[in-house]
Design goal:
The relative contact order is 0.13. By secondary structure, the protein is an all-beta fold. Helices cover 0% and strands 44% of the residues. It has a four-stranded antiparallel β-sheet with strand order 3-4-5-6, with no helix packed on it. Strands 7-8-9-10 form a four-stranded antiparallel β-sheet, with no helix packed on it.
Length: 147
């Protein structure tokens, strides 16, 4: 990213412009599921880059609500949403089930961002942190680790 433009940097280090996002400033989060790079800008907008063809496009699958942080864990794209929830994609896909959302619940705290460390999803609130693991549940596959 340079400004609001997305670039690909090949081995030759000659920048190749892929496209433009609407944000001009602020934090940008990017992560891929090995086939598609997803870009979030802290709004309801998102973009994707096909990693095989470098095709750049708006990313707006049904039930996706945008967000400010995106990560990849156990074949799922997970993101922190603007309303303080965690949203997960379908396994191995960039599609989203309407009920595949959860909220941190150990304290009356609001989710700020998420990260993935050692196959665990860490959900950071303003005052608390919860660690979640994949328990294989449906429609939301993750649950907080007790303790």
């Amino acid at each position: 990213m340079i400004g609001n433009r997305v670039y690909y940097v090949p081995d030759t280090f000659i920048l190749q412009s892929l496209g433009t996002i609407t944000s001009q400033s602020g934090a940008i989060s990017m992560y891929d599921n090995k086939t598609t790079l997803i870009i979030l800008d802290g709004t309801t907008s998102a973009w994707s880059v096909n990693l095989s063809t470098l095709a750049f496009a708006s990313f707006a699958p049904a039930n996706f609500v945008g967000g400010n942080q995106i990560r990849y864990i156990d074949t799922f794209l997970v993101s922190s949403t603007l309303n303080g929830n965690i949203q997960a994609s379908d396994s191995g896909a960039t599609t989203y089930t309407a009920l595949s959302v959860a909220t941190i619940s150990g304290d009356a705290d609001r989710l700020q961002i998420i990260d993935v460390v050692h196959k665990e999803m860490w959900a950071f609130g303003k005052r608390t942190t919860e660690v979640w693991s994949n328990v294989g549940a449906y429609p939301f596959p993750f649950q907080p680790i007790p303790g």
